[in-house]
Amino acid sequence: MAKAKRFTFDKERAKKVAKNALIFLAPALLVLLADITKALPEWIQGPYLVIGLWVVNTATDALRKFVNR
Prior knowledge:
By secondary structure, this protein is an all-alpha fold. It has helices at about 10-40, 45-65. The protein has a domain at about 40-69.
């Protein structure tokens, strides 16, 4: 891999910036997912609540695994 010149923005640097942006976004997404869990509508009860929590928890786990790669 060739070293990028100073003050240039090549494809490799763009990938690093995009990855860091996702990593920095992760805490905000985790807070959003936790808030979604509390904001589930009242009509979601019983099995629908379980399914809704499963979806939110699966999304949280996927985000955690992606960030920790």
